[in-house]
Write a structure and sequence with these properties.
Blueprint lengths: L7 E3 L6 E3 L2 H20 L7 H24 L23 H14 L4 H29 L7 H11 L21 H4 L1 E3 L18 E3 L4 H13 L9 H10 L3
Antiparallel strand pairs: 1-2, 3-4
Length: about 250
């Protein structure tokens, strides 16, 4: 049996430690088994009912895992409905099958909003591409030592643009909360909500945390991503949704 020091994860900035207790590790093992079942099931489509039900089970287990880790470390998550600062990020690392499931969900529950969602996604993608071009043009002037991460810089600048996620409702709630991608689920904040605003993103003493799955689970997710991938090299939620929501129109 693992003890609570076997797996330690870190705050991206603050370098605090969260310890993973044995009961949470057991739930994580359940996540891996569920993902293995999805991979071995070899569903022809990621929109097949059995595939979706299995992935929703992964979400349920991840929520249990997350809560166990939080409680074990005596933290309280400040994230709540209406606080949407983190939704200003360009959401990356979305699996292909997640984008397909989200697109299907939008078609079913928000068909009248799709045109507006696609238009904003296109606009946001153009802004990101412009930031990327400017970054490439000026990278040598910004940093000639190679110490600045190019992708991090582009995403950081986009965050500063305050481009709210097109999937947020008027009251600041996530319209796809039930099927939101794993990359949105792993982010947690233990600070005051206002301190999650873009202007504080480089502040060292604000505890935010990414509770990632371990390498084994991540590798299975990668294999599933490539198995059901329809748009190579696309992992941004906005850019993927444009393609998934317009491919049949």
């Amino acid at each position: 049996m693992h003890n609570d020091t076997d797996n330690i994860q870190k705050f991206p900035v603050q370098k605090e430690l969260l310890r993973i207790p044995p009961e949470a590790r057991a739930v994580h093992n359940g996540i891996v088994r569920a993902l293995e079942s999805m991979e071995n099931g070899n569903a022809q489509s990621c929109l097949a009912d059995d595939f979706k039900l299995s992935y929703f089970r992964v979400f349920e287990l991840f929520e249990q895992y997350q809560q166990m880790v939080i409680q074990h470390n005596n933290y309280k998550v400040s994230c709540k409905r209406g606080c949407a600062y983190c939704c200003n990020h360009w959401v990356e690392d979305v699996n292909s099958f997640e984008a397909a499931i989200i697109a299907e969900y939008l078609r079913k529950y928000f068909p009248d909003s799709i045109e507006k969602i696609v238009a904003q996604c296109i606009e946001d993608e153009a802004i990101l591409n412009n930031i990327e071009k400017l970054t490439i043009d000026r990278m040598s002037d910004i940093d000639d030592t190679g110490t600045i991460d190019y992708i991090d810089l582009v995403l950081s600048v986009f965050y500063q643009m305050n481009r709210t996620c097109p999937l947020l409702s008027e009251n600041g709630a996530c319209s796809i909360y039930k099927v939101r991608p794993l990359t949105c689920r792993i982010y947690m904040s233990f600070s005051e909500n206002a301190l999650c605003a873009p202007e504080y993103q480089e502040t060292d003493d604000i505890p935010t945390y990414l509770l990632n799955l371990d390498e084994n689970a991540s590798e299975i997710l990668d294999r599933l991503h490539f198995r059901y991938q329809r748009f190579p090299e696309e992992t941004g939620l906005r850019s993927m949704l444009v393609k998934y929501l317009t491919e049949d129109t």
